[in-house]
Write a structure and sequence with these properties.
It is a single chain. This protein has eleven helices and ten strands. By secondary structure, the protein is α/β, with parallel strands linked by helices. The protein folds into three domains: 75 residues, Arc Repressor Mutant, subunit A, CATH 1.10.10; 92 residues, Periplasmic binding protein-like II (D-Maltodextrin-Binding Protein, domain 2), CATH 3.40.190; 106 residues, D-Maltodextrin-Binding Protein, domain 2. The strands form three sheets. Strands 4-3-5-10-6-9 form a six-stranded mixed beta sheet, with helices on both faces. It starts with a helix and ends with a helix.
């Protein structure tokens, strides 16, 4: 088994399509098929089944995916250490950021890094806060960028910026004329919220708890996986939601904003204390920490 075989296997597993995997890897379809066949024959297993005109992972293939990811992540970490000793700030930096951070705060800092260190290749994935923290914990990301707190105890969390939560509502909503709204009044309204695991939602829960409420006290009509979806639902109906001020301002949607009492929250960078910090990682953290 080689690392290249594992890279090819993961490319096919991610896309469940040999041709698309070959295009992504800049290989021929026959080369990709031959690599998968060699891996299967070497271990006398089947990694993919063909169902009609498509392929699916077998039980063995599904079990191999997380192990292959971990092994390739460690191989990339070794490569980064060696690159670092070459006295060059270069290599691939894997970032995983929560939606608000990735869409409204991080891009200009990525541009700064590229301008200062053009030899660093950036790879950005976007998810919710829980997914980001787990990826850093597992070694799939070098840096995680999140809003709020995380439960993974081993990770190092460094605050690099501040944000605040705001209520968002249609301009026709009865509360749009109010400048301040006590948290105790929130239980009287219908809500559209981000999904469980999002930083915005966890910070909102913190605000509710301080006021003696929980999410169970609210009338939650919808849970949606993105800020854009939440804003569209709020603009079209009579429900309230809560989100980052940065996201609400940047969206340009026809909604009204009201500050959430006690809704100040941090943006933070996550690193794993037991993993080697390359020059590329340190360069990114320095830029993220700049005023």
């Amino acid at each position: 088994m080689t690392l290249e075989q594992l890279r090819i296997f993961l490319a096919v597993a991610d896309r469940l399509h040999v041709t698309r995997a070959a295009d992504a890897l800049n290989l021929t379809q026959s080369a990709v098929s031959a690599s998968i066949s060699a891996l299967e024959n070497r271990h006398d297993i089947k990694l993919f089944d063909r169902v009609g005109r498509r392929i699916i992972l077998t039980e063995a293939g599904d079990a191999l995916v997380p192990e292959a990811r971990r092994l390739l992540a460690r191989a990339e970490a070794v490569e980064m250490v060696l690159e670092d000793f070459a006295q060059n700030t270069r290599g691939r930096l894997r970032l995983y950021a929560s939606q608000t951070v990735a869409n409204y705060w991080l891009p200009q800092r990525m541009v700064t890094l590229h301008r200062q260190h053009p030899g660093i290749e950036l790879d950005l994935r976007v998810g919710n806060t829980a997914q980001v923290a787990q990826s850093v914990e597992d070694g799939d990301a070098d840096l995680g960028l999140i809003e709020g707190e995380v439960s993974q105890g081993e990770l190092h969390r460094q605050v690099v910026a501040r944000d605040s939560l705001v209520l968002v509502m249609a301009r026709s909503h009865p509360w749009s004329a109010r400048r301040g709204i006590p948290v105790a009044d929130y239980a009287t309204q219908s809500w559209v919220l981000r999904e469980s695991g999002s930083g915005t939602r966890s910070e909102f829960e913190r605000v509710l708890i301080k006021a003696g409420l929980t999410l169970a006290d609210l009338k939650v009509s919808l849970e949606l996986p993105s800020n854009e979806a939440v804003l569209a639902a709020v603009a079209a109906g009579e429900s309230l939601s809560v989100m980052s001020r940065r996201a609400a301002v940047a969206s340009g949607k026809a909604t009204h904003m009201v500050d959430v009492p006690g809704g100040e929250r941090p943006f933070a960078v996550l690193t794993h204390p037991k993993r080697y910090r390359t020059r590329a990682v340190n360069a990114m953290i320095e830029i993220l920490s700049a005023p």
